[in-house]
């Protein structure tokens, strides 16, 4: 049996997030300034770029201010969870596929649905 998590690469996930999020250039999610420097990579997720804003002197990273920020699961697990949600798998099935307990899968799917709600409203108007 193939473990689908092994087919998803964290580096590619972060590259994609950066390409989509910063398509018009990197800016601070706190103050909107484009004056910043790269500050290396995250210690726990080595493909996650860190930045320091010269406008407000705050640090941020690729996920700051997104629905994917502040969680312990790797980005690839969140992406796969979203993919499985699109396939209409139950939380129990998602948990099984991702090797999570059902409570973690429930938390993730609820969090993703809440984060996607503003997009859904925008598209339906």
Quick rundown:
With 125 residues, the protein is α+β, with helices and mostly antiparallel strands.
Question: Can you offer a commentary on this structure?
Answer:
By secondary structure, the protein is α+β, with helices and mostly antiparallel strands. The protein folds into 2 domains: 1-66, no CATH class; 67-125. 44% of the residues lie in helices and 11% in strands. The protein has 4 helices and 3 strands, in the order H-E-E-E-H-H-H. It has helices at 10-21, 75-86, 91-98, 102-124, and strands spanning 36-41, 49-53, 59-61. The protein has a 3-stranded antiparallel β-sheet, with no helix packed on it. Helix 2 crosses helix 4 and helix 3 crosses helix 4 (102-124).
Total helices: the number is 4
* Residue runs with pLDDT of under 50 for 5 or more positions: none
What fraction, in percent, of the residue positions are helical?
40-55%
Mean pLDDT, all residues: 88
Instruction: Strand order, main sheet: write it out.
Output: 1-2-3
What structural category characterises the helix and strand content? alpha+beta
Radius of gyration: 16 Å
As for the number of domains, it is 2
How large a portion of the residues is in β-strands, by DSSP E?
5-15%
Question: What's the β-strand tally?
Answer: 3
Biggest sheet overview: 3 strands, antiparallel
| End-to-end gap | 43 Å
Order of helices and strands: HEEEHHH
Overall shape:
globular
List keywords for this structure.
single chain; three-stranded antiparallel beta sheet; 4 helices; 125 residues; alpha+beta
Write the layout of secondary structure elements.
Layout: H1 10-21, E1 36-41, E2 49-53, E3 59-61, H2 75-86, H3 91-98, H4 102-124
Antiparallel strand pairs: 1-2, 2-3
Helix pairs in contact: 2-4, 3-4
């Amino acid at each position: 049996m193939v473990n689908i998590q092994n087919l998803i690469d964290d580096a590619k996930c972060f590259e994609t997030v950066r390409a989509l999020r910063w398509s018009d250039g990197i800016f601070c999610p706190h103050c909107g300034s484009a004056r910043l420097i790269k500050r290396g990579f995250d210690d726990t997720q080595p493909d996650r770029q860190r930045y320091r804003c010269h406008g407000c002197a705050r640090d941020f990273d690729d996920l700051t201010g997104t629905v994917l920020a502040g969680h312990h699961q790797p980005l690839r697990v969140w992406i796969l969870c979203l993919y499985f949600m699109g396939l209409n798998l139950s939380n129990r099935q998602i948990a099984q596929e991702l090797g999570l307990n059902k409570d973690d899968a429930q938390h993730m799917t609820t969090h993703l649905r809440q984060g996607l709600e503003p997009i859904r409203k925008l598209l339906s108007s």
